[in-house]
UniProtKB/TrEMBL annotation:
Protein name (record): Glycosyltransferase N-terminal domain-containing protein
Record keywords, A-Z: Glycosyltransferase, Transferase
Coiled coil: none
Organism: Jatropha curcas
GO molecular function: UDP-glucosyltransferase activity
One Pfam family named in its UniProt record: Glyco_transf_N
Family of this protein: Belongs to the UDP-glycosyltransferase family.
């Protein structure tokens, strides 16, 4: 698809964090801006460009610029995106991103854009201010998670990490009366006090990126998170622009034939689809508990998930006799799949996911019942928002160590898929209401 307004005079530079969940919404936003005739230079590692270029709907207006990722001690050779490494090595990729600063600065000086849109590169405003260019900090996680974790009144440093007591109490002026965090979730949220680059914590990086910007943008809408956005704007004293979910249409390319043929063999709304994104890697024992939970639920299922830690393929990690028992009704796939196309298939009736912000929006916009199994900080807060604020989903129960059992997973699925279930009827009614609202504001 091309745009007739090839000679746009309003130019933008986009520089997202090198993770699929960040790069993809930045590119979808670029497509939306291109619809209005605005042109973009998109800064990415070469590997990411190859992965995302098919999402570029306006190649006449959106140009990719390849960044060379410098070597960093501790970062495996060849790493260019967060999907290439385990989560505990992300700190080193952040250092590498910071070391592309000279390349980024050169592009900004050459292109002379009206705006630079960025997220975790907190040093962008230092470049733009010197040349009179506006810098907009674009957040692609939920406003709710920002309001809770990045409250400016809460000081988080390496010397004094955030405590359980601090996380259990809502920040001053926070729009909700309670924030309920379980013990294992508190540990998961301590990441905000960890290093995220040389000499800087995650908390410091993100708050500095917001404070130094000329304006804030958030991938959300007033209808769902207006009170959180108002709170953030009041705390940072900056204008806050909302982009909406910026979810693309499923696209014209058909669903891969093998999945279409398999899904066509089941009744409407009967299949469970599960996906945990590009970074979640379970331990073998939890992986096996997950797949056994789908078997126990008794419904057909398609699970797209990375192999567990230390194992090359999903097939190697499956419980003994599992494939034989679920033959014909269950598939565990270790490859990338067309998530939006699968969710759009009539036979898919339940979406089990990790509640990353992209998957959260895709779940909200789908016709599926939603079951959530969060793993990391913002996913936990997104889950609270979906399950407790909007009441459109059910969260799988865990023990105090964060372990979920096959019985708990199966029970959560049955609670939304049983046609007579009060819980299932309630979340479906709420989901339909919110989806209709979102259809109006897309």
């Amino acid at each position: 698809m091309s745009n007739p307004k090839k000679n746009s005079i309003f130019h933008i530079v986009m520089f997202p964090w090198f993770a699929v969940g960040h790069m993809t919404p930045f590119l979808h936003l670029s497509n939306r801006l291109a619809e209005k005739g605005l042109s973009t230079t998109f800064l990415l590692p070469n590997k990411a460009i190859q992965q995302l270029k098919h999402f570029n709907l306006y190649p006449d207006l959106i140009a990719f610029h390849s960044l060379i990722i410098p070597p960093v001690d501790g970062l495996p050779a060849g790493t260019e995106t967060a999907s290439d490494i385990p989560i505990h090595l992300t700190h080193f990729l952040t250092i590498a991103m910071d070391r592309t600063r000279d390349q980024v600065e050169k592009v900004i000086h050459e292109k002379k854009p009206k705006l630079v849109i960025y997220d975790v590169a907190h040093w962008i405003p230092e470049i733009t201010k010197s040349v009179g260019i506006k810098a907009i900090n674009y957040t692609v996680v939920s406003a709710a998670s920002l309001a809770i974790v990045l409250n400016p009144a809460r000081k988080v440093t390496l010397e004094k990490p955030i405590t359980e007591a601090e996380l259990a109490v809502p920040p001053s002026g926070y729009p909700s009366s309670t924030v309920v965090l379980r013990r294992h979730e508190v540990r998961s949220l301590l990441f905000v006090s960890y290093p995220f680059g040389e000499g800087i914590t995650f908390y410091e990086r993100i708050t500095n990126a917001m404070k130094e910007s000329d304006a804030l943008a958030i991938r959300t809408c007033h209808e769902t998170e207006g009170k959180f956005c108002d709170y953030i704007g009041s705390q940072y004293k900056k204008p806050v622009f909302l982009t909406g979910p910026v979810i693309p249409e499923p696209g014209k390319a058909p669903l891969e034939e093998r999945w279409n043929k398999w899904l066509n063999g089941f009744e409407k709304d009967s299949v469970i689809f599960c996906a945990f994104g590009s970074q979640i890697v379970l331990e073998k024992e939890q992986f096996q508990e997950l797949v056994l939970g789908f078997e126990l639920a008794g419904l057909p299922f398609l699970v797209a998930i990375k192999p567990p830690a230390g194992i090359s393929t999903v097939e190697e990690a499956l419980p003994e006799g599992f494939e034989k028992r679920v033959k014909g009704r269950g598939i565990i796939c270790g490859e990338w799949v067309q998530q939006l196309k699968i969710l759009d298939h009539p036979s898919v009736g339940c979406f089990v996911n990790h509640c990353g912000f992209g998957s959260m929006w895709e779940a909200l916009m789908s016709n599926c019942q939603v079951v959530l199994v969060p793993h990391l900080g913002d996913q936990i807060l997104n889950t609270r928002f979906m399950a407790e604020e909007l009441k459109v989903a059910v969260e799988v129960e865990r023990d105090e160590n964060g372990w979920f059992s096959k019985e708990n997973l199966s029970q959560a699925i049955k609670s939304v898929m049983d046609k007579e279930s009060e819980v299932g009827l309630m979340v479906k009614k709420n989901h339909n209401k919110w989806r209709e609202t979102m259809d109006l504001v897309k």
